[in-house]
Amino acid sequence: MYYVNLLKSVRKYLRFKMELKELYQEIILDHAKNPRNKGKCEGYNHDAKAHNPLCGDKVHIYLKLEKDKNISGLSFEGEGCAISLASASILTDTLKGRDLQFSKKVTDDFLNMLKNKSKITLNSLSEDQVTTISSLSGVQEFPMRIKCATMAWHTLLSALEKKA
After folding, report:
1. Mode of pairing for the β-strands spanning 58-65 and 46-51
2. Between the CA atoms of 135, 136, 140 and 146, what dihedral angle is there, to the nearest 10 degrees?
3. What are phi and psi of 31, to 5 degrees?
4. Which of 116, 81, 98, 113 is nearest to 156 (CA)?
5. Residue 4, Cβ neighbours under 10 Å: how many?
6. Tens digits of residue pLDDT in 109-153
7. Phi, psi at residue 3, to the nearest 5°?
8. 87 and 153 in contact (C-beta within 8 Å)?
9. What single DSSP character describes residue 97?
10. Rounded to whole angstroms, how far apart are CA atoms 61 and 96?
11. Residue 142, CA atoms < 13 Å, CB-side half-sphere
12. pTM of the model
């Protein structure tokens, strides 16, 4: 009986993992096909560009940082694979309207998630936001795609360091 219950538990877990993988794929495809915040945000005062010559992905991050360190505008322009576009879209959708310190923490959490296979730890993100960001965690299985997922996030950090 023990082994039957164990087998049922394993099957249930595997079904859950497959459903989660399908959900993650849907989120990535949705953000890639219908990117949020694409184009130049009005009145941007920080920006940065990045290019991955290995695959041709390009991203340009624009942000408007207010005196109170709130990111009131955040957008991107770019072209590339579905993962690259989805990541830039998820980044802008998650961090637009947030303060600088929080945005840096989310970025660090995201980069650690991909590098160290850790989880997003911020309690101030909604469950949907955590799920959306976590949808990119699948690239860990494909080391060549990690740069596709992280390029926009590294570019955001570069944009924060310089003005337009």
Report:
1. antiparallel
2. 170
3. -70, -30
4. 98
5. 8
6. 999 999 988 888 777 899 999 999 999 998 988 888 999 999 999
7. -70, -35
8. yes
9. T
10. 12
11. 11
12. 0.87
Domain ranges of the chain: 2-161
- CATH among 3.40.50.2000, 3.90.1010.10, 3.40.47.10, 3.30.720.120 for 2-161: 3.90.1010.10
Condensed to tens digits (0 to 9), the pLDDT of residues 14-49 reads 675 667 678 688 999 999 999 999 999 999 999 999
- CA-based R_g, the chain, Å: 17
Structure-token match 């694979």, residue found: 81
92: its two tokens? 């802008």
Integer angstrom CA distances of residue 7 from 2, 12, 67, 108, 160: 9, 9, 58, 38, 50
For the chain, the straight-line distance linking the first and the last C-alpha, in angstroms and rounded, comes to 67
Between CA 127 and CA 123 the distance in angstroms is 9
C-alpha atoms less than 13 angstroms from C-alpha of 14 in its C-beta half-sphere: 6
Q: Tell me the HSE value of 71 on the side-chain side, using a 13 A CA sphere.
A: 26
